Amino acid sequence: MRVYILTDLEGISGVTLWSQCGPSGGAAYEASRRLLMSDVNAAVDGCYDGGASHVVVLDGHGWPCNMVPELMHPGAEYICGTGFPAGWGMDEGFDLGMQVGAHSMNRTRDGVLCHTQNHTTDARYWYNGREMGELGQGAIEMGHFGIPCVFVTGDEAACREATEFFGEHCVTVAVKKGYARQCAQLLSPATTRELIRAGAREAMTRGGLVKPFTIDFPAQVRLETLVEPAPDEWTWEQIEGAEHRVREGVCDNALSIYSF
Length: 260
Ligand SMILES: [Zn+2]
Known about the structure:
This protein is an alpha/beta fold. It has one domain: 3-Layer(aba) Sandwich (Rossmann fold), CATH 3.40.50. Helix content is about 25%, strand content about 25%. The chain contains five helices and eleven strands, in the order βαβββββαβαββαβαβ. It has helices at about 25-50, 135-145, 155-165, 190-205, 235-240; strands at about 1-5, 55-60, 75-80, 95-100, 125, 130, 150-155, 170-180, 185, 220-225, 245-250. The strands form two sheets. The protein has a seven-stranded mixed sheet with strand order 3-2-1-4-7-8-9, sandwiched between helices. A four-stranded antiparallel sheet has the order 6-5-10-11. A hairpin with a 2-residue loop joins strand 8 (about 170-180) and strand 9 (about 185). Helix 1 packs parallel to helix 4 (about 190-205). It starts with a strand and ends in a 9-residue tail after the last strand. About 45% of the residues are buried.
């Protein structure tokens, strides 16, 4: 079985602050890159425990290279860099999809580092009237190739969102519980490595139970953003009270949703 793993950084074990999520964070960001490898490699181990024949990992967080090459799992291949092709290297030959390091959609009150694409602009996306975060968007890409999203790790809010969107048979592993957007109760990476490995192994059995996630196309898309970017220290009340603009349009297929 071939497995495609989409990764992000905000839902990785030990990551709680925006400053841990980009190069301007310095040593904190470098530590996050290693934590990312720990979670991802645990998922890869779980895939092989569950019978995988081939695992491909996408370095999906918003900086060109988050993965640490010398820590890469020898059993997996990694798509890194900038200028990803449409479909991110997926094809119909993949059997299962997973999302590691996931975060919940923007405005989720207990969502650690919750956002949808761009946290400084308070971006929110609706497809055919249903608001969706990056979990849903990533699964639409997988669904285009007939790949079901069978496993999600991240904070509790991301896991809840995964169950809402992909159903009860999608295996979820929570690595932290959010108290505020930048405050979480963390499990140790040593603990989450075991949980993620076991979860991914279990998810390898869920291919027949989880349907590929799709929406109707052409899709009506609504995008709401702040007119001016918000500083990270703003409260939800400040963000919600600031001026927003709305853009609406149509996406013809799954591979074009990121160009809107
Ligand atoms: Zn990210």
